[in-house]
Amino acid sequence: MSQSIDEISLGVPPSSDVLLDVRDLRTHFKVMDGTVPAVDGVSFQVRRGETLGVVGESGCGKSVTALTIMRLIETPPGEIVGGEIWFDGRDVLRLSNEEMLDVRGAEMAMIFQEPMTSLNPVLTVGDQIAEAVVAHRKVSHAAARERAIEMLRLVGIPEAQRRVRQYPHELSGGMRQRVMIALALSCDPKLLIADEPTTALDVTIQAQILELIRHVQQETGTALLLITHDLGVVAETVQRLVVMYAGKVVETGTVEEVLRDPQHPYTEGLLASIPSKTMRGSRLNVIKGSVPNPFRMPVGCRFHPRCPYAFAPCPDHEPPLDAQGHPERRVACWLHTAPPFGIEQRPSYPAVLPARATAGEVAS
Amino acid sequence: MSGLGGVPPEMRDVEVPGSVPPGGNGTKPVAETASSSSARDEVPPAGTGEVLVEVQDLVKYFPVLGGLLRRHVGDVKAVDGVSFSVKKGEVFGLVGESGCGKTTLGRSLLYLQRPTSGHVRLAGQDLNTLKPEQLRRTRARMQIIFQDPYGSLNPRMPVSDIIGEGLLAQGMKNSQERTKRVGDSLDAVGLRRDYTRRYPHEFSGGQRQRIGIARALALNPDFVVCDEPVSALDVSIQSQILNLLLDLRQQFGLTYLFIAHNLSVVQYISDRVGVMYLGRMVEVADVDELYEHPRHPYTVALLSAVPEVERAKAKKRIVLKGDVPSPVNPPSGCHFHPRCWLRERLGNPEICSTVDPRLQIVGQGHAAACHFADRTQQETERVATPVGEVA
Hints:
The structure holds two protein chains of two kinds.
Chain A: E1 18-31, E2 34-47, E3 51-55, H1 62-69, E4 78-87, E5 90-91, H2 97-103, E6 108-111, H3 115-118, H4 125-136, H5 141-154, H6 160-163, H7 173-185, E7 191-195, H8 203-220, E8 223-228, H9 231-235, E9 240-245, E10 248-254, H10 255-260, H11 265-272, E11 322-324, E12 326-331, H12 359-363
Parallel strand pairs in A: 3-8, 3-9, 6-7, 7-8
Antiparallel strand pairs in A: 1-2, 1-4, 4-5, 9-10, 10-12, 11-12
Helix pairs in contact in A: 4-5, 4-7, 5-7, 7-8
Chain B: E1 51-66, E2 71-87, E3 91-95, H1 102-109, E4 117-122, E5 125-126, H2 132-138, E6 142-145, H3 159-169, H4 175-188, H5 205-218, E7 223-227, H6 235-252, E8 255-259, H7 263-269, E9 272-277, E10 280-286, H8 287-292, H9 297-305, E11 316-317, H10 341-345, H11 351-354, E12 360-363, E13 366-368, H12 376-383, E14 385-386
Parallel strand pairs in B: 3-8, 3-9, 6-7, 7-8
Antiparallel strand pairs in B: 1-2, 1-4, 4-5, 9-10, 10-13, 11-14, 12-13
Helix pairs in contact in B: 3-4, 3-5, 4-5, 5-6
């Protein structure tokens, strides 16, 4: 059994079956108007060969988490102010920039949302893949070129021999995303991070790319960290799930546990607000209000101003991400954790929350 | 807002609690204009069978200019002969992938871009026959809500001008009257009346979309084209806006053309749905009929591609090969034939690549443009594979 979060002893590497161990990670952005705590105490693990999904709405910190793991946060304004990222036995936050060059692209690789802006427009796709191979492996240019063709075949690009000489603008969106995947997998990474890999694509092309990601993940045995806002995409792609809200993890578990039996009111609200056939003719459930202003995060539980169940401890005390049953099923909510000493017990469930946000707060 | 009746107060989707006056009768904020009908209250919420908007053989080409002399070398056939009608009070959903022409169709049927050919009739009146001044007046009856709540509001205008500009253009010169109407529109979309002096940057994405809706409502339209109104919004905000659109339809007897690429959203909100592919309408049916018994092979693949939270593992799928071809040079015959799994299954019959299939009745209120629509369902069973097992 892998280490669980409440037994974290910072500075000690995790057991060897854990490939990626993110511990209490904090990435803040210091800008003119103040500090944005984009990632604020995030912890999760990915085992070797496992697929993990990170879901949340825009601004919840899921992409910043991925960029921090890759050490791609620009400083300033970004700053990793705390935490550890253990990857394959090393804390990547303690590696020098030179050491990181050997890890990034070779042992962990990333696919981005927008394939047009993440490929180099003035290099052929073959050169871009070969460049990555030459940078990380002691191979000749000719061998790297062969590898590029092999990778394009793996990701299902027809006529790979010809395509390898084409430029990104000559390819369609779906083809570009295939090239991105080929590039990311060209050095056999142990971890593949995919940040909204299908958001910019049409639904029939999305189906192609998701099938491809599933296929190559099983074929190569790489671990997958899939970041998305689409609960449907994670439902059919990953084994375990992390739900984020306002820079924090609010719930984790297997994908079935979280989607069938959501424990956090935010997850519950998110699932209930997805329109579907069964909802026809009735009003959709909504999560009232909108995500908090990052410069003025609510104290206590960050979801409490929007939460229909909020009660006594929520506005003042931040709930811990406590295990429910087994160590990987976790929820950060006072409904599922004994409230701190001295706080009155929870009221009859569900609590009724008086309207909290006033109009002025919302708009200003 | 009688539609809120069954919802507990804490679940209401109003970003500003207390801003919507309670009770149903007193909240009809948008007064009648001279140009619109006064029989609004008698319109029942669902489709009555009476046609409000009729589109006939609508074509919109954009010229492609090439070479040194910028000669006309071809056309982007964005909308290539589309006919359908929208009944009074219904929500007609229009789906399709990017580049299929759904947005161009929405804009040309409002004459925001003049169609290359074809006819659009609003309540029986052909827009082609109207003089510019008459067309301008008619515009009050047909409005549009845009996709991007950031790009579609002028950042230099206060809310009062954004919403009031259309009123001024329609000849409402009295500023007090205008202010009242702007306030009433804000009321209707769940924003506070005193927001009129604020600027767009002071609002969140969901609130901006409400302003866009208020702008469309201010002119008291009969018909509203909603062009991807929730695509730019997060799921939790999306449901607030969908609820609002349905409330407003109920309240004001509106008719919507709801354009979206999100098939779950369209299934939720629409009464009837049309599917477009490369500038053509390939299938039209009542929403349940279309989602449960699709007859065009493209619709089958499109619906099967949607990732769903429920029954994610049980779902069967047909993954299409290749990409959507260019609308400058669409394939011959049926535009879908190079990617069609049904054609492949039937041994590539010649008719698919030579004869353009017309929309044909295939069932009660159900039309599909496929030569082999009668074979689709049977073959779907044989071709679809469970998610994750496609090589």
